[in-house]
Amino acid sequence: MSVPTFPTGGTLLDTFKKSFVDVPVDADKDNAIATTDFLDAAESLTTIFDALGSVAFSPVKNDMMGNVKKIRERQLAAPAESATLQELVINELKTKKHNAAEGLVWLVRGLDFTCIALSQNLAKDGEELSESFRNAYGNTLKPHHSFIVKPVFSAAMSACPYRKDFYTKLGADQDKVVAELRPYLKALDNIVAILKGFQDRKEAKW
């Protein structure tokens, strides 16, 4: 897992193809979320797992990338019906299939897990990443994981680097790292909340 390099004075977030801050959310259309931008942002976020540095995080990253792939495949198969994530899910379910819809459920859980872990860690100066990630895992992914998968993810939580080492990998200027992370995580939290609300609705279930 190689961490992307970035220019001197820059941060890891500068290397992202798309930031969640820039993902269009159409408030006039029931908070419709642009599919392509969202998937690019989700894909970019997985770079953070590379910064965590341990191969133990490979299953976490691979799981998220696999779910991005499922959604992209549906988008490519029916582009006219997939401009927003909500349209993509509703239109796929009309075909009696739910591969992408299920992929989005798991992707949202993975994003929720990452968002909660990093937000909690930023909010608590002295807390190590392993504690933040373990707490987030218990509240998001763990209840949905089988007894076979749980130990794999638990191992990743234990393999978190020390807090100071992780943030250094995100950028040399720590004030800038925090200044960029805060709005990024706030935007991600908003998108996750919108999608969880949508997935709770009857039209999004199969």
Automatic annotation (TrEMBL):
PROSITE patterns: EF_HAND_1. It comes from the Eukaryota. Gene3D superfamilies: Glycolipid transfer protein. The keyword Transport applies. Keywords: Transport. InterPro entries: EF_Hand_1_Ca_BS, GLTP_sf, Glycolipid_transfer_prot_dom. Transmembrane segments: none annotated. Residues 33-171 form the Glycolipid transfer protein domain. It holds the Pfam family GLTP. This is Glycolipid transfer protein domain-containing protein.
